[in-house]
């Protein structure tokens, strides 16, 4: 699913800003392994309209399968 992370990574690299990813990039903040580390850094977050998110999620699952974990 697309959330804008590729765009942000590209802009940061063009501006020669260092990038450090912490944990899975698609987890909720509270699920990250070290929230103290993340709290001390400048971070990006994207909020999508729920309808467009569900449309994207459905499309992604149709391409990759609907395995339930």
Explained architecture:
- The protein is mainly α.
- Helix content is 43%, strand content 0%.
- It contains three helices and no strands.
- The protein has helices at residues 5-14, 35-39, 50-64.
Mean pLDDT: 76
What is the chain-wise order of helices and strands?
Answer: HHH
Query: Helix count, per DSSP?
Result: 3
Describe the oligomeric state of these chains in a short phrase. single chain
Measured as a percent range, the helix fraction is 40-55%
Summarize the entry for a quick read:
With 69 residues, the protein is an all-alpha fold. It has helices at 5-14, 35-39, 50-64. It is extended, with a radius of gyration of 14 Å.
Highlighted features:
single chain, extended, 43% helix, mainly alpha, 69 residues
Lay out the secondary structure.
Elements: H1 5-14, H2 35-39, H3 50-64
């Amino acid at each position: 699913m697309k959330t804008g992370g590729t765009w942000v990574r590209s802009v940061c690299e063009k501006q020669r800003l260092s990038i450090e990813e912490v944990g899975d990039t698609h987890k909720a903040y509270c699920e990250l392994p070290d929230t103290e580390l993340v709290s001390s850094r400048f971070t990006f977050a994207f909020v999508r309209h729920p309808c467009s998110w569900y449309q994207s999620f459905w499309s992604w699952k149709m391409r990759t399968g609907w395995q339930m974990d």
